[in-house]
Amino acid sequence: MERPGPSEVTGSDASGPDPQLAVTMGFTGFGKKARTFDLEAMFEQTRRTAVERSRKTLEAREKEEEMNREKELRRQNEDIEPTSSGAHVVRDCSKSSSRDTSSSESEESSGSSDDELIGPPLPLKMMEEPSNHIEEDILGPLPPPLYEEVEEDDDDGDSEEEENPVQKIPDSHEITLKHGTKTVSALGLDPSGARLVTGGYDYDVKFWDFAGMDASFKAFRSLQPCECHQIKSLQYSNTGDMILVVSGSSQAKVIDRDGFEVMECIKGDQYIVDMANTKGHTAMLHTGSWHPKIKGEFMTCSNDATVRTWEVENPRKQRSVFKPRTMQGKKVIPTTCTYSRDGNLIAAACQNGSIQIWDRNMTVHPKFHYKQAHDPGTDTSCVAFSYDGNVLASRGGDDTLKLWDIRQFNKPLFSASGLPTMFPMTDCCFSPDDKLIVTGTSVQRGCGSGKLVFFERRTFQRVYEIDITDASVVRCLWHPKLNQIMVGTGNGLAKVYYDPNKSQRGAKLCVVKTQRKAKQAETLTQDYIITPHALPMFREPRQRSTRKQLEKDRLDPLKSHKPEPPVAGPGRGGRVGTHGGTLSSYIVKNIALDKTDDSNPREAILRHAKAAEDNPYWVSPAYSKTQPKTMFAQVESDDEEAKNEPEWKKRKI
User: Fold this and answer.
1) Residue 226 burial (10 A CB sphere; 0-12, 13-18, 19+)
2) Which residue stretches does the UniProt record annotate as biased composition, category Acidic residues (predicted)?
3) What are phi and psi of 647, to 5 degrees?
4) pLDDT at 213
5) Which helix (DSSP H) or strand (DSSP E) does residue 49 occupy?
6) For tag attachment on the chain, is the N or C end more exposed, with fewer CB atoms within 10 Å?
7) In the Cβ-directed half-sphere of 200, how many Cα atoms lie within 13 Å?
8) What is the pLDDT of residues 175-213, one digit of tens each?
């Protein structure tokens, strides 16, 4: 059998599939050319259909909206003159016709570009542009229409708010928390805004939970972490799990959210001259602050003329020591201190009126030093950094509030006077948007009301005031997340100001809860129930006579509290005897004996008066030899003189 040549094979392939081969393989389609699919064409076709469908839905929606607008305009214009209503209808019809024509034009113009457009349908403004320009510039999903107009409206709203920042102050509503009767000298709010802590001159620290409180506004916990020292500062850590407590003692404490002590700073040695060589503060503290970024690091300032940084993990020694100095190099006491927003700077205000700012890692020389920020001899009560970190506000004891730019720390940007303060911890703070500065004023008792004063940061104008109460405003705190203002007053109140529309959570959670009613079982006292016909096991025992019961209790050594008899001898069983065998114990025993005489001392002396007169043995003989001789003779009678005349005189007579 001969094999076919190459010409024969090519000829059979060109003529078509071999029918015998198809029968042999078992299906008829064997040998045919495979069908090829153009994927790009298929995707184009699906995209065209999607574009057409989306365009149709958009046109239908636009027509429905136009019809609804026309109906609303007709209803509104029914009460107006017919001419004006006709004019409005004509305008609306013209608008609709123009839109129809523009849509028809866009359909005609985009008819050629339907084959090339890909993605969602174009907005109205984009449809008016030529199709070639759309193909070249637009990639990906197209932006929704009318974005520019919305952004313009938002910009207008922002400009209006910028023009009047007073509208952002949340002061439409307030609640009052009763801390006590003395000054609320410390406020602290955790970063989430769920819990508030207050401290005062009554040594108490109280915890308030906004989510757990009802309309009675009662604290869920009260404690005295520093015993008999006034609370000067309270602050939550940046994680919200610890609270820094600064009191009038020399040792700061850190407690957890439930009030349990976590650590206590060590006390230093006051006999060391260089305060950098001792491990802790040696005098009364003023205030403290947590590091805004590093967990577990905080700072305190004290009357020992130092600012010290600490770590919670190492309470036995401070981390670093900053020593404020005057321009002559003498010690000066810092009255307040704080961290910058990024934690790289430490600012302290001192009693000589200066403000000194250090780099956190450079403890020797301050980075900025302004020596006459406030009047010397006054206690600057607060320094606070703005949220952008460029501006520093200082509340002075000279009744002023000043604003400083730390980039040009040579003079204050603004200064406001006439803000009386009588407390060493009067606060100042910035609003969450950095456009306002808030501080409180102090008043004498019965001489007006304390105020919360708001200053605009750009112009430093006094733009707003809130009358708080008939006492001084000591502490103020504006929480950025809650947008609520907490105020501590001199009469033991802590007030929370909020706005239902501008504020979040916080006081809004507890205001809506009704006050819980006291249970009836708790109010009624338990009375005896007389059941004369009850079973013996439920019958109360009959009251016996009191004398017999006392006699019975007297025999019981536990009820009678009978003391143990003294031990005779030197002692046994770990107990010391009445007197041991030593001389010292015998002398102590004899000294302790009561040998006092309760009789009248005058009678006791006069009892021996007669015996002393009859027998002057104890007094007169003792002075007989030492008594001087009398210089003058005693006057005697004539008979006695005659008797005493000498014999020679008598003979002469």
Assistant:
1) buried
2) 105-117, 148-164
3) -70, -35
4) 87
5) helix 39-77
6) N
7) 21
8) 999 999 999 999 999 999 899 999 999 999 999 999 888
Contact 480, 430 (CB under 8 A): no
- State what percent of residues in the chain have pLDDT above 90: 36
pTM, to two decimals: 0.57
User: What per-residue confidence (pLDDT) applies to 40?
Assistant: 82
Contact 241, 233 (CB under 8 A): no
Over the chain, what is the mean pLDDT? 77
Other CB atoms within 10 Å distance of the CB of residue 650: 9
- In whole angstroms, give the CA distance from residue 265 to residue 276: 15
Q: Sheet holding 184-189: strands in order across?
A: 184-189, 195-200, 205-209, 221-223
Rounded-to-integer distance, Cα 346 and Cα 340, Å: 6
Q: Are 470 and 491 in contact (CB under 8 A)?
A: yes
Tell me how far apart the alpha carbons of residues 151 and 590 are, in angstroms, rounded to a whole number: 101
pLDDT on residue 86 = 44
* Residue 484 structure tokens: 């609520």
Structure-block tokens of residue 639: 């008979």
φ, ψ of residue 180 in degrees (nearest 5): 180, -150
Predicted confidence at residue 493, as pLDDT, reads: 92
Q: How far is CA 520 from CA 220, 517, 530, in A?
A: 22, 9, 21
CB 118 within 8 A of CB 140: no
pLDDT tens, position by position, 323-366? 999 888 899 999 999 999 999 999 999 999 999 999 988 888 88
Q: DSSP readout, 187-216?
A: EEE-TTSSEEEEEETTS-EEEEETTT--TT
- Listed residue (496, 497, 452) closest to 471, CA to CA: 452
Tokens of 390: 């460029």
Contact 333, 305 (CB under 8 A): yes
Nearest to 494 by CA among 237, 216, 200, 276: 200
